[in-house]
Design a protein that fits this description.
With 106 residues, the protein is mainly alpha-helical. The chain is 44% helix and 4% strand. It contains three helices and two strands; from the N terminus they run H-E-E-H-H. The chain binds zinc ion.
Length: 106
């Protein structure tokens, strides 16, 4: 059986009550919710931009080696490895500028 609840009446201050508000939540100040929602939207957009930038670079990586059932291992060997490396390097080098342009870096 649970411990009995404290002797609440319907008019006690639930915000200050450790049983009603064990996490000590507070009321938002007027306008604060809108400000926080805007910040959250900005943060979400920033994360999406960062994921897009990093996914674009990830897509340039060589595929992982694959081992066939007969034990042979296949690896990716492009005819133009310098072009791959140059593109990869250019994209990584451009990251700070891209992030600044997107407002992720100040
Ligand atoms: Zn209470």
């Amino acid at each position: 059986m649970n411990a009995p609840l404290p002797d609440h009446d319907n008019h006690h201050n639930a915000l200050l009550c450790p049983y009603c508000n064990p996490e000590r939540l507070v009321l938002a100040r007027p306008g604060e919710v809108e400000v926080l929602q805007a910040k959250l939207q900005t943060s979400d957009a920033s994360v999406q931009i960062a994921v897009k930038l990093l996914s674009g670079i990830h897509a340039l990586l060589y595929p992982a080696p694959r081992t066939l059932p007969d034990g042979r291992t296949m690896v990716f060997r492009p005819e133009n490895p310098h072009e791959f490396m140059q593109e990869l390097s250019d994209r990584i080098r451009a990251l700070p500028d891209e992030m600044t342009k997107a407002g992720l870096l100040k």
